[in-house]
Structures are given as structure tokens and as C-alpha cells.
Design goal:
There is one protein chain. The chain is mainly beta. The chain has one domain. Helices cover about 0% and strands about 60% of the residues. Strands 1, 2, 3, 4, 5, 6, 7, 8, 9, 10 and 11 form an 11-stranded parallel β-sheet that branches. The protein is globular. The relative contact order is 0.20.
Length: about 130
């Protein structure tokens, strides 16, 4: 089993992350995340772009799109934008503003993204 990837608070990233391990995002990012594992946007983190993963947990702020089988917006989490998911859970004090589409299979790890800058997290240390 691969170790989770951690993006620390104070880190700013622009581009595309493609990974096969869990991501704990505490920083700021603009771009795309494509993961075959869970993506967690932690308290205080900001993300702008598209996330494609089987599971997305939102504790911070997302402006953009989520293409995930399960999206769970935790208390204090905010998502503004578009959700394409099979399941959506919003806990008390979680916020969602946008459009949600129910899809049987919402994410695809072979998604092509529009950004040209890509980082393979199996080969770099963040």
C-alpha cells in the first residue's frame, strides 16, 4: 500500500496532479487532481479546478468541479461549483452551492485534463 501524499499548509501549486495514492491537501492549488484513491481537502485548504477520484472529502474550500463516486462535505467544508457523483453527503455546517448531477460512475482515472503542467507524485517529494 502506498503512503498518502501530503501537501502542507503554505504550499501553492498550479498544474495537474495524477496519483495512485490518497491525498491530504492542506495548501492552495489551482488545476486538476486525478487520483485512483481518496482526495481530502483539509480545513484551511483552498482548491480551484477539477477533482476526479473515487472519493472526495471536503473540509476546506473548493471552487470548481468534482467527478467522484462519493462526495462528502464535512462540517466547515464548502464546495462551489459542479458535482457529478453517485452519492453526495453534506454534514451539518457543510455548504454546497452549485449544480449536482447523479452519475452511476462519475470518475475516470484516464481523464485528459486541459493543463499542460503535470506532476507525477510517485516521482517527486512535495
Amino acid at each position: 500500500m502506498l503512503q498518502p501524499t501530503l501537501i502542507a499548509a503554505g504550499t501553492n501549486i498550479t498544474g495537474t496532479l495524477k496519483m495512485h495514492n490518497e491525498l491530504h491537501h492542506h495548501g492552495t492549488m489551482e488545476g486538476d487532481i486525478i487520483s485512483s484513491e481518496t482526495v481530502i481537502i483539509e480545513h484551511g485548504a483552498h482548491f480551484r479546478g477539477t477533482i476526479c477520484a473515487p472519493t472526495l472529502l471536503v473540509r476546506g474550500t473548493i471552487d470548481g468541479e468534482a467527478h467522484c463516486d462519493l462526495v462528502k462535505i464535512m462540517g466547515g467544508g464548502t464546495l462551489h461549483g459542479i458535482i457529478k457523483s453517485f452519492m453526495l453527503i453534506i454534514e451539518p455546517k457543510g455548504q454546497f452551492e452549485g449544480i449536482r448531477t447523479v452519475c452511476a460512475k462519475a470518475w475516470d482515472e484516464n481523464v485528459q485534463t486541459k493543463n499542460s503542467t503535470e506532476f507525477d507524485t510517485e516521482n517527486i517529494l512535495l
